[in-house]
Amino acid sequence: MFVVVTSYAQQSETEQKAVLVTGASSGIGLKITEELSAKGYFVYAGARKQADLDRLNTMDNVQAIKLDVNNWSEINAAVDIVKKEGRGLYGLVNNAGVAIFSPLIEVKEEDLDFIFNVNIYGPYRITKAFAPLIIESKGRITTISSISGILAGRFFGPYSMSKHAMEAFTDALAVEMEKFDVQVSAIEPGNYNSKIVESLVKRMKSKDISFENSLYKEEFESLITSYGADRSRYKDPKEVADAVEKALFSSNPKRRYMVVPNENEANWTITQILREMVQLNENQAYKYNREELIKKLDKILAETE
User: What SUPFAM superfamilies does its record include (predicted)?
Assistant: First the structure.
């Protein structure tokens, strides 16, 4: 008996599943691009700068596309490119994102506009533009959210607000796409090695943003010092890329994939979810007792097995 093994890379263009990744030039987006392309999937890698596009184009199974998620002209041009290539589009990964650290009572409206434009309107624009291709392939849509979409710490308000929005975006989109047999997931990474804080610090310097006169001057300086722009000490985000692959290609994808580098971050996140459940249940007209809550939890656990 002869067994023939065919890798994804040997497949014809019409068989090779294609995925679009936004924000593919660095950090988590680059890792997703590297991992998927290495496994034979074809990746349309979105990036803004020509140097990044040139670098991405040197990779096997990758075609770089100039793509700013804030620019409808570039988004529409990207759709045209994908259509002309004739591969179709099976997967969409909304990864492009930015961060802002600021006290909510001091953050400038223009800074909120900046983060919401990328982190909220970006996935909305990309998903809206590429939805017809995803529906045609009965494919998958995955958005990189964050455990900050569940947690909300001091000075993380603007970022957490944008990621909480992505949690709602995922839930609503998932229900709406069911009729087209399109599966929708969110990935909630913890603290991994990425360029997001480095980009944040660069923007603060370029905009001459200072907290010298802030009511939170000492606390904010302590945060920047402890958090740091250098993320090299943090874990490589391969685990995040692995979760994206599961969301895109597993036979039974989950709605959410929390991916954290250590037990502490898992504990913080799950504890916060449970705390919110208790808060919702307190002092409401139809309050459930402990036994009833445990019964509900057991039922939900059974449904996810």
Answer: NAD(P)-binding Rossmann-fold domains
Task: Return the domain boundaries, the chain.
Answer: 8-261, 263-305
Cα end-to-end span (Å), the chain? 37
State how far the alpha carbon of 116 is from the alpha carbons of 119, 189, 200, in Å: 5, 19, 14
Task: State which fold the 8-261 domain adopts.
Answer: Rossmann fold (3.40.50)
Q: Is 227 exposed, middle or buried (0-12, 13-18, 19+ CB in 10 A)?
A: middle
Looking at every residue in the chain, the average pLDDT score rounds to 91
Quick one: DSSP state of residue 148?
A: G
Q: Over the Cα atoms of the chain, what is R_g?
A: 21
Q: What is the pLDDT of residue 231?
A: 60
In the chain, the amino acid numbered 3 is V
Cα 34 from Cα 227, distance rounded (Å) = 27
> Tokens 């998958």 belong to which residue?
140
Beta-strand ranges (E) seen in the chain are 18-21, 42-47, 62-66, 91-94, 140-144, 183-189, 256-259
> What are the catalytic residues?
159, 163
Q: State how far the Cα of 60 lies from the Cα of 45, in Å rounded to an integer.
A: 12
